[in-house]
Fold these 2 entries.
Entry 1:
Amino acid sequence: MKKPNPGAAKARAAQAADTQGLVKSMPDNANKPKEIGRANAVSPPVGMTRKPASRAAAAAFIKAVARHRHPERETDPPRV
């Protein structure tokens, strides 16, 4: 059996904490009302941004968002 690596566990814990900090800093999309209408389509507003605490936190956040874009959920009705 492989021994646990305390350094790797600390790194994962730090990444999780950084990712949660990034998520908490953007509780909602303040630009959502500005995503509707022709004027906003022609000249879209600048999106919200935050500087992540680490590159690992940014990568984890992007990966989590990408998971929501699953091809089976992109069809209506869902493929069987």
Entry 2:
Amino acid sequence: MEQYAKARNKTKSWKRKQTSLNALKPALGRLELDAITPAHLHRYVKKRKKDGRSDATINREITCVKHILNYGCFEGVRIQNGS
């Protein structure tokens, strides 16, 4: 995930994505891209809200996942849409 974010973003965007990636790693970092499901993301959002994070922060983090999944599709990673 880090390779994607660093290669495809300017410095300010990279720093924001790095912050998002640091938050995402404990929950999703061990998963392959094609193993991430909507259920994983729903649990992640629920936990982040419980931790007191703002909706804007959570949205940025989920957007980071979306960008990485889209990039994975572009690179030929087969992503399944299911729960």
